[in-house]
From TrEMBL, chain B:
Compartments, record wording: Cell inner membrane
Domain TRAP C4-dicarboxylate transport system permease DctM subunit positions: 220-628
Superkingdom in the source lineage: Bacteria
Organism name: Aromatoleum tolulyticum
Protein name, per record: TRAP transporter, DctM subunit
Transmembrane segments: 36-64, 76-93, 114-136, 156-177, 184-202, 214-246, 266-287, 307-336, 348-371, 377-403, 424-442, 448-467, 479-504, 524-555, 567-588, 608-628
Key words, A-Z: Cell inner membrane, Cell membrane, Membrane, Transmembrane, Transmembrane helix, Transport
Chief location bin: membrane
InterPro entries: DctM, DctQ, TRAP_DctM
Bilayer topology annotation: Multi-pass membrane protein
GO molecular function: transmembrane transporter activity
Amino acid sequence: AAGKPAEFKLKLGTDLPVTHSVNVRLKEAIDAIAAETNGRVAIQLFPNNQLGSDSDMMSQIRAGALELATFPGTVMSTLIPATSITGVGFAFGNYKEVWSAMDGEVGNHIRRSIEKVNLVPFDTVWDNGFRQITSSTRPIRTPEDLRNFKIRVPVVPLWVSMFKAIDAAPVSLPLSEAYQALQTKVADGQENPLALIDSAKFFEVQKYCSLTNHAWDGFWFIANARVWKSLPADVQQVMTKHINAAARKQRDDIARANIDLQKTLEAKGLTFNQVDTAAFRQVLSKNGFYSQWREKFGSEAWALLQQYAGDIA
Amino acid sequence: MNTIAHSLGAAEAAPGTAHASTKSRRLQFAHAADRVFASAVEALAATLIVVEICILFAGVVSRYFLHSPLVWTDEAASILFLWLASLGAVVAFRRGEHMRMTALVAKAAPHMQAFLDTIAVAAALAFLMFILGPAYEYAAEEVYITTPALELSNAWRAAALPVGLALMCVMGIIRLLRVGNWRLVASALATVAVICGAFYALGPVLRELGNANLLIFFVGVTAATVLIGVPIAVSFGLATFGFLALTTHMPVMVLVGRMDEGMSHLILLSVPLFVFLGLLIEMTGMARAMVAFLASLLGHVRGGLSYVLLGAMYLVSGISGSKVADMAAVAPVLFPEMKERGAKSGDLVALLSATGAQTETIPPSLVLITIGSVTGVSIAALFTGGLLPGLVLGVSLCFVVWLRYRKEDLSKVRKASRREIGKAFVVALPAIALPFVIRAAVVEGVATATEVSTLGIAYALIVGLLMHREAKWGRLFPMLVETAALSGAILLIIGTATGMAWSLTQSGFSTSLAQAMASLPGGAPMFLAVSIVAFIILGSVLEGIPAIVLFGPLLFPIAREMGVHEVHYAMVVVLAMGVGLFAPPFGVGYYAACAIGKVKPEEGVRPIVGYVLALLAGLAIVAAVPWISTGLL
Ligand code: NA
Ligand code: NA
């Protein structure tokens, strides 16, 4: 295959650093696809928002300027509201619940919504991770600790409303400005998966990391429908096989990395603490957060979520 | 920016004196249309700036003083910002204020000059017409997106582009009508049409050429159109449009999406706000007081105010994190007085642009934060490491200033007495305090870099009302319009340049280049030297941050393997990129400096050579002596 120009050239955009396990596993899958198709398919990976912000990549993939991409569900919710349901506050307690939901009915529900806007979602969802809160002022143990706490939150309506329901003071800033905002105390803390807390160097400007596990989000591997349909069935099949297999491996990577990451981040100066999530769920329930979002997602979707996450109301 | 050469502008001043009556009627109509249209767009743009200031100010007050942050302020500001940029671009187009390189045009015979000036409008019109359809499509697609904070349809925001571009089209037609010479207009339109037609006809041939098209369009077409005086933003836009439409299967809509993203980065909102703050400081008389004080201190030193400019940029660049904003904060205050004292505008803008590159490593810098997050180097270490390299380049610039001004005639300048200095200090105190107020507000976490200019504006308004009774408040509206036009001119360049950078990125040339750089003989010194050359070029064609995002992850591991300290490598790369970004003819930063300083781009081209050489010398020292970057760590 060497030297022969590829028959199908596809661009793949992600919003993650090169070294993130999603990109590492994608790279492996890309090589495997090239090998198995004898070089007919050449996928070029553009990590790190090289091709644009998430919202711009969304517009590119819908227009067909970009063929493949991965997006967090919460980001896609600006187009497809159903995709953020996995991020409902304190819904999932552990990965067993997450993966049975995503490989089961909750995943199916979201996949159907994605297909409606002419995008092709791949079956296996990748792990973005449970989100944790870091702080420069105090460790977060109870909902009271979050009262009036200025926390940088991505502008995801679900999460902003969650932190408002706990009486925190969510500050909306782009990720690129978060480091400086934490350094100058425009915000007291922020929340993200451990992998990002490490790669964005937030440990340099934060003291505590509270394992709140307050929300989970995954990455969807998406193809532009027109481009996808133009690929021969055998190519589609090879791509599906390798991308989905890579996603499974990436889930294990994160599970393993989380243990190591806590140790590395501790060594870099963050003090960790465990959190009893029941109290948070109670406050959210009392302040009407769950009923509000049940209405937004629809009771049908909510019932699916409850099948896996237990009774949240 | 009335300094910008424009024969079309001249037509405005002396409308058809000895024309036939039909012709003058037609011209009268064109003038009337122009006036009505202009006042409507100007009023809207001015209002948008005021609303932006209020929104950001409300954000600061509710977060810092009332402890209940408003989540929607950033989003609202960003939506309105795209509208401001688009309408500002229309105002700038009407006034002929979109940056052009008229060095060659100015040398041409008068009839040729008139022809090229008309070509510039015709080429802009062609670009606008090409992009209007895709812009509409883009906005129509955004109907389905709901903005996260305000939960509005994103079409409210995206519509700014098709609306702005359509208004520019109307403006372009009015401008052609106002030329009053039909044959000139027809021949210009025909020339542009023939060239576009020829490219279209060559399409199938071009498509076969693969990556050679990157050279044809982004070097060939860009350089040719820039040199014949087509506005820079239009040159970048035409090159990108041609590349996408003729040589790829990708929808041209992507260019509009990139313009949207490039033009509405919220940090860029600090550009118009600092520009307005600068004008406000000047209007209230605070600027005069401050410059009078600095002049009493340094006026008897040759090139004294140039040193002030250097110092001010070093101080201010620690505040905003965005270079264009830094320049906007400094130039409007210092330039008028410096020009009055006989400084040449070309030299001023060259120095301003050079300081833009020189202060690129001063924390907090967006570029350094970007490096930290894409390569894994500690951002805190980068912030510490960046102080001395910026200083080294500053010293080398000072040397050029000293060389240039050592024979300045100061026979008429008298050294101020202590008493005079003291008096000037008291009068200037509120103005001198301003940079410190702004700095403190950022360091203490009162406001973000984007918001802090609104605190400055509030401060300047209060000081102006209380202390400077001579302030000319009637100038507020024209100042707002001027701010809008300037922002439109700068942001449209940034927008189309972002589209150009995307086209280069998606071609995937980065990996091959990195591999080639790693395989060169000569070890670390060779790698550093090649990196400098590569990043000067990349900074020039890709703009700063996209170049880092694309090449950082590829080159930093190689540097590490070669034993180059990462912080050291970061400084070398950032400064090299800065030189490219702020050097003509491709550096967007240079045109931003010209726009802010209200200087014709060609005036600064010669003076900047000396400064660029100084920067390169400083850069060579920073590259050769790792301690400068790592000594403070
Ligand atoms: Na800076
Ligand atoms: Na450029």
